[in-house]
Amino acid sequence: MRNLMRIGVAAGVGVVLLTGCQSDDSTDDASNDRPSAQATNAAGEVPTTPGTPSGSGASGQADSLDGGWLGESDVDKVAMIVQKKKVMLAFQSADGQKRQACEGLLQQKSILLKCVEDNKDRLKGTVEISSGEKIAIAWTSGKKDLLTKSGNGQMDFSQWGLPSPPAAG
User: Fold this and answer.
1) Among the four residues 20, 40, 68, 117, which has the most C-beta atoms within 10 Å?
2) What range does the domain containing 92 cover?
3) Could you report the per-residue pLDDT of 119-149, keeping only the tens digit for each?
4) For residues 132 and 120, what is the distance between their CA atoms, to the nearest angstrom?
5) How many domains does the structure of the chain reveal?
6) Helix (H, G, I), strand (E, B), or coil: what is residue 127?
7) Is residue 29 in some structural domain?
8) pTM for this model (two decimals)
9) Residue 100 belongs to a domain
């Protein structure tokens, strides 16, 4: 029950974080670098640019993904925190009707999550692209998320109402 409440708090804070971080009053074109549904091609694949590692050449190392990540998929806003192989993910549907929080592990390029409700969208995923500032995750459900490192790449877990994960040993 306590774990369920922690995850529920994470989802609520994640939604606030997502909606708060998505607005930018700046008129600078750089503010339009946010990932969006247009970041995928017609086949639902995330295109790569020259020099961007992808597929089996992607970094995939857990330490290289540490930090906070924000982005969108075709229908969801997504926030993810990775810290020493521990993953916390929150997402909200574009219409705001569906919210979910999940916790799990990152093992090389694989993400394995457990979610609060019977969510099947993001239980198992693979990091397909990792450039240090952007990652693409393909989920076995067929969903794809394109995420960008948030700010300096760090998020304080206490902002999500969650304790910091234990140090990996």
Assistant:
1) 68
2) 2-23+51-154
3) 788 999 999 988 888 999 999 999 999 999 9
4) 28
5) 1
6) strand
7) no
8) 0.57
9) yes
